[in-house]
């Protein structure tokens, strides 16, 4: 018992020391292992018993970490102490979520609801939509999401914004927005939704509550194995970068949604990930092109570097603290780290590698400020 206690104290001391000095901690979804890997410098760890992690998403706010699982659980964990705190099953299949100031909202597939919980995962409200729900975002006191089966956008308004807990009411429903919305991103007051079976994207101005469809210059659609993902990382000060559905293109729009370019890329894009300095856009692909990543110069809008890895790239992430780019090489069971400090992407080189079983999503947590 004494040995176990000493071992526990030693581990706590290591983790506490890490919180004092580390700036950025890396969390990696172990896709088939029900675990969340932790990379903190040369130290690695695992948070276990994380349910079905086949399509897990992780987010942070303040000192809280949350994950949603394939089997519909929302899990709260402590990213500093690296331990699971609580779980709650919102459905049989969850797809996306956001963390508000005083709530967590989960968009579900299976039971066709959006569930509102407090930050300790106590249920507050169930919003029934009769649809699979995607593209969940927040803006001011609005909660916005799209209904995949009914081709709608719902804008919910928190009617008690100054209260400790929210209460949402339907503000406006936009119908016939295009066929099969599948994901969304938000930039300031613009909610931008992808339409899987329409040759357009949808743009909702949340200040004016006005919606329009913007046509895309698509070739004949190819069969795709993985749906493209939108996100904040695809928005620069000048442009929106949008992966095409079933086409080997990345679309570039200005903030008035006028077409700037359609960049030809090697495969069907999945992620378009923008570097923190906005100079580079990393593009990942599906199908036979899973091992390929291309880098686009955001000024010239041309491909300037091609990577080919020894396994499938399921995710990547630019560091916010260092000039580094992390790649999740799923079928090679590793996460690799490249130095991207050079202004010439051809000179970027691998500097680190960690053994992680079946890695998928990479998520970064900014640690508390160092104590002196």
Overview features:
372 residues; Methanol Dehydrogenase, Chain A; 4-stranded antiparallel sheet; globular
Can you offer a commentary on this structure?
By secondary structure, the protein is mostly beta strands. The chain has a single domain (2-366), classed as 8 Propeller (Methanol Dehydrogenase, Chain A). The chain has one helix at 2-21; strands at residues 24-30, 35-40, 43-47, 57-61, 64-68, 73-78, 83-89, 94-99, 104-108, 113-117, 123-128, 133-139, 142-147, 152-158, 168-174, 181-187, 190-195, 200-205, 210-215, 239-243, 249-254, 259-264, 269-274, 280-285, 292-297, 302-308, 313-318, 324-329, 334-339, 349-355, 359-366. A hairpin with a 4-residue loop joins strand 6 and strand 7. The longest helix is centred in the N-terminal third of the chain and has 20 residues, at 2-21. The chain is globular. The two termini are 34 Å apart.
What is the strand and helix layout of this fold?
Blueprint: H1 2-21, E1 24-30, E2 35-40, E3 43-47, E4 57-61, E5 64-68, E6 73-78, E7 83-89, E8 94-99, E9 104-108, E10 113-117, E11 123-128, E12 133-139, E13 142-147, E14 152-158, E15 168-174, E16 181-187, E17 190-195, E18 200-205, E19 210-215, E20 239-243, E21 249-254, E22 259-264, E23 269-274, E24 280-285, E25 292-297, E26 302-308, E27 313-318, E28 324-329, E29 334-339, E30 349-355, E31 359-366
Antiparallel strand pairs: 1-2, 1-31, 2-3, 4-5, 5-6, 6-7, 8-9, 9-10, 10-11, 12-13, 13-14, 14-15, 16-17, 17-18, 18-19, 20-21, 21-22, 23-24, 24-25, 25-26, 27-28, 28-29, 29-30
Q: If classified by CATH, what would the architecture be? A: 8 Propeller
Strand content: over 45%
Percent helix among the residues? under 10%
Q: What class, by secondary structure content?
A: mainly beta
């Amino acid at each position: 018992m004494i040995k176990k206690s000493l071992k526990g104290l030693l581990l706590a001391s290591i983790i506490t020391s890490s919180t004092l000095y580390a700036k950025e901690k890396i969390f990696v979804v172990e896709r088939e292992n029900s675990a969340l890997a932790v990379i903190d410098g040369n130290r690695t760890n695992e948070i276990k018993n994380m349910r079905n992690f086949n399509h897990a998403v992780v987010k942070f706010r303040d000192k809280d970490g949350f994950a949603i699982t394939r089997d519909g659980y929302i899990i709260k964990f402590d990213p500093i102490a690296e331990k699971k705190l609580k779980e709650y099953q919102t459905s049989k299949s969850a797809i996306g979520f956001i963390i508000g100031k005083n709530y967590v909202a989960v968009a579900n597939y299976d039971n066709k609801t959006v569930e509102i919980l407090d930050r300790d995962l106590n249920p507050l409200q169930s919003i029934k939509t009769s649809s699979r729900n995607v593209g969940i975002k927040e803006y001011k006191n609005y909660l916005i999401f799209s209904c995949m089966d009914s081709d709608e956008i719902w804008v919910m308004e928190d009617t008690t914004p100054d209260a400790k807990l929210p209460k949402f009411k339907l503000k406006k429903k936009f119908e016939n927005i295009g066929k099969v919305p599948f994901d969304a991103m938000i930039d300031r007051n613009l909610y931008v939704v992808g339409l899987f079976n329409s040759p357009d994207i949808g743009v909702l101005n949340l200040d004016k509550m006005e919606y329009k469809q913007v046509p895309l210059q698509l070739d004949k659609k190819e069969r795709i194995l993985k749906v493209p993902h939108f996100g904040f990382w695809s928005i620069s000060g000048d442009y929106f970068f949008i992966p095409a559905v079933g086409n080997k293109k990345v679309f570039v729009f200005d903030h008035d949604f006028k077409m700037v370019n359609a960049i030809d890329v090697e495969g069907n894009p999945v992620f378009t990930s923008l570097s923190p300095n906005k100079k580079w856009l990393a593009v990942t692909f599906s199908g036979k092109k899973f091992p390929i990543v291309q880098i686009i110069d955001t000024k010239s809008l041309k491909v300037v570097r091609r990577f080919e890895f020894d396994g499938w790239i399921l995710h990547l992430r630019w560091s916010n603290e260092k000039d580094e780019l992390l790649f999740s090489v799923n079928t090679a069971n590793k996460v690799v780290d490249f130095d991207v400090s050079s202004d010439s992407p051809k000179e970027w080189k691998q500097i680190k590698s960690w053994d992680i079983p079946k890695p998928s999503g990479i998520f970064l947590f900014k640690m508390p400020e160092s104590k002196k």
